[in-house]
Amino acid sequence: MEVAESKSKKAGGRLCSTCNQRKAALKRPKTLEQICRECFYEVFEEEIHQVIVGNQLFKPGERIAIGASGGKDSTVLAFVLSELNRRHNYGLDLFLLSIDEGISGYRDDSLETVKRNEIQYGLPLKIVSYKDLYGWTMDEIVKVIGLKNNCTFCGVFRRQALDRGASLLKVDKIVTGHNADDIAETVLLNILRGDIARLSRCTLITTGEDGPIPRCKPFKYTYEKEIVMYAYFKRLDYFSTECIYSPNAYRGFAREFIKDLERLRPRAILDIIKSGENFRISTSTKMPEQGTCERCGYISSQKWCKACVLLEGLNRGLPKMGIVRSRGQNNERTKDMKQNKGTKNIESKQCGTLDF
Known about the structure:
With about 350 residues, the chain is of the alpha/beta class. About 50% of the residues lie in helices and about 10% in strands. It has 14 helices and 10 strands. It has helices spanning about 1-10, 35-55, 70-85, 105-120, 130-135, 140-145, 150-170, 180-195, 195-200, 225-235, 250-265, 270-280, 305-315, 325-340, and strands spanning about 25, 35, 65, 95-100, 125-130, 175, 205, 215, 290, 300. β9 and β10 (about 300) form a beta hairpin.
């Protein structure tokens, strides 16, 4: 009898805790509220709108590049930002900007998704590739360096490639789909690495204001699970395969730890972000001074930016030059910098083909 009543109650379902009219369709991971689809769409979009307005992320008339990989985060970002732009009259010109790292069986497939998004959302698409910018694809780089440090190369090259693509589009800002989970992971990683410089800015919703093009994160307080739910219920077209070169990435271990914390206490993700926001750097801590790369003109705290150092190592057959910090390699690189200062006799393709 009790089993029958339980099944009947389960079949009937609970009412949405927001509207008290429709049946609840899901439990919000962020608040654990039982909520219907319609109310979920509304609160999801409204929270992002409030983040945009509250942090004054955009100004009317600005050109905005959406970093589009074809994955769930960037696809939902493109869809929601397009909707909010129309609904609230932000007055923005939106573009999709994709980076082709040259990873066969992964990026080529995800770019097909982005091309479909271009048509579905009516947003112009610009694709820039590692091959055109640096003369190398990630497939070629992995053949040289293996799978141990490949994410270092890809991360450095991608950050710079986004800026170069944004410069070609002549946009005012770049928006990325970094969500609350991503930011919590980054806070944890920077603590584990003792990276004070990055720890001091990793929770900022807008970064790079002193660089070529500022970057914004409208999903700063949005949980990854809710992004997945939104994409699923809205039936958005996105690519869900993980990068074939990242199964052993250091970030993956931080991600698993964050997921374990979330299962025990869903608010842990927001608490970690809040902790990161409240960190104060000691005045006695020496922070890197930002300058420009002597080789390509990109922002750098060293004579050469990280991308140029990595490229020089690849082109000289010393792929670990920018990763392994041995005294001999540093001396050799410093000597080469002095010899090549003010000249363009390096045989490799220049990292910086654009004027920053």
